[in-house]
Each structure stands twice: as structure tokens, then as C-alpha cells.
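---------- Forwarded message ----------

FYI, see the PTTG protein record below. Original note from H. follows.
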Amino acid sequence: RIWPFQTLLVVPAAELLGLHAACSAFSLKSCEECLKNVSCLWCYTNSTCIDYPVRSIFPPSSLCSLSDARWGVCWINFEALLIAMAVVAGLILVSLSVCCCYCCYCRRRSRRRRLEEEEEQIARKREERRLESLQRKHERKMKHDEIRKKYGLLQDSDNPYSRFENE
């Protein structure tokens, strides 16, 4: 026994929509009738509905000129459709390339700023360490001078070379 939902799986969608007829059956009717089937191409020169030549990307001029061919919609010819699609694709590509360039520029600028900040921080720390080192050196010198003074070893700063006297 076949259930109703099983017939939907067996019957192709084109037959369910009534589009199983060949495109030539819609010739001398209307463009809208012809283009209900997406595999059809309407030619205005002789009002014929023909199968879209899927082997070639664009329909050859022997079938129908691009300015008289309609595919998908009747209100725009194939030539204008191609130009519009090319313009849209071009705009998308240009937009993507501009976005990529801008993002790369921003990344480079932020990386440069980050490196400059790190260099400033390193220079600041280096200066702090140098000052701390000078401070410790000065403290050590004062401590050593106190010890020398305590034991009488502190020399006169005015005349560092003095004669040694033996008493």
C-alpha cells in the first residue's frame, strides 16, 4: 500500500507544479508563462520559449540576441541582467578589498602603537632602574665613608695625595 506522503517523494517537484511540459509548449503564449519554469528562456524577437542552453553560460546569438532574451523575469533583458550582475559583483569585490585594506591598515597602526607603548614602558623602567642603581651606589659610598671616618681612614678630599707620616 502506498501512503499519500510517499507519492510526494516519488513524484518530481516539476510535475507537482505543472512545469513538466517542454519549454517549447509555452511558445506564442506569454513571457510570464514561459519563465515560470526556470529552465526556459523567452525570446522577444519571435515570441518563442526555448530551453535554456545550460552547456554554454550565455545563450548564443544564433538562438536569441542577448538584448531580446529574458530569463528569470520579463521586465529586464538578459544583457542588462548580465551588466547589473557584473556591476553588483564588482561593487562587492571592491567593497571587500577596501574593507580588507582598511582592516590591515588598522591592524598595522594598532600594532605600531602597541610597540611604541611597550618601548616607552621599557625605557621608563630602564630609567627607574638606573636611578635606583645610582641611589644605592650613593648610599654605599656614604656607608663606606662613615666606616672610613670611624676608623680614621677617611682622606682629605682637598688633597688626596698626602705624605704618609710614621709616628
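H. also flagged this: Confidence is low (pLDDT under 50) at residues 1-16.
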